[in-house]
Task: structure prediction
Amino acid sequence: MITSKSLLVIAAAGVVALGAYFALRPALQQQANATAQPGAFVVPALSAEAQEGERYYNAVCAACHGQNGQGTAQGPALVNDIYNPGHHGDEAFQSAARNGVQAHHWRFGNMPPQQVTGAEVARIVAYIRELQQANGIVTRPHNM
Ligand code: HEC
Result:
């Protein structure tokens, strides 16, 4: 026999299920979006070294090179095929941070030298390389 107590239990279970559905819905929708846009920018799961690099990058480089290396009006995207490891090896990053860069690829102007250590730049490079790799940018020999 259905008592008012068991009705209450059924109603409560319904509320919990509905709550779970609405709590999970954004995640499910995000998943759907990720598969719906094959060309979308990918932010991969980062190694510990790259996570450290991300912190230095956000503090020092992101103002010009943008969040996740996607560029701003002040500087180019570093997650760009032109900065693949074959064309701009790790030393190009060290040199850019240490000495700055004379504008040559773009029209953003010069990059001034940055206040970072070589070890910090090495972490930043690890971060940029993981972003590049996740977005299909692979080493290509420089033959320009
Ligand atoms: C004030 C803005 C600014 C900041 C801050 C900045 N950059 Fe740049 N960077 C630029 C611009 C502009 C260029 C493009 C120059 C060109 O080739 O025309 C550039 C180019 C580069 C290049 C390409 C160098 C080459 O050989 O062509 C690298 C690598 C780079 N930046 C790394 C970094 C890193 C790493 C940081 C943080 C430590 C950083 N940048 C911070 C503006 C900036």
Remarks:
- Residues 60-61, 63-65, 74-76, 88, 92-93, 96-97, 101, 103-106, 108-109, 111-112, 114, 116, 121, 124 surround heme C (CB under 6 Å).
- DSSP finds five helices and no strands in the chain.
